[in-house]
Amino acid sequence: MKTLLSLIACCALGGQAYAARLQSSNFQYGAAADANMKSGALYRVDLNADVLRGCAPGQPDIRLFAPDGAEVPYSLVKAEYLKKAAETYAAEITGYKADSREAVLEFRLNGQFLPVNSVELSVADRDFRKDTELFGSADGKNWNRLVSAAIYDYSSQVDLRRTRLDFPGSTYKFYRLKLRDTEEQPGKGKTVSLKYDGIDLNISGGKGLKLRIDGVTARTGGQDSVVGIYDEANFEPSAAGENKDNTSYVVINKGLPFDKVEFVVEDGFFMREFTAWYSDTGTEDSYRRLSGGNIFRFPSGWPDGERVSAELSSPGHGFYKFVFNNRNNPPLRVKSLRFKWLRRSVYFIAPADMPSLTVAFGRPNTPPPAYDMENFINQGNWEKRTAEALRLRAPVLTAGYSPDAPADWKSRTEKRLLTGILVLMVAGMGYWLYNLLKKVTPPSA
Question: What is the pLDDT of residues 389-407, one digit of tens each?
Answer without folding.
Answer: 999 999 999 999 998 866 5
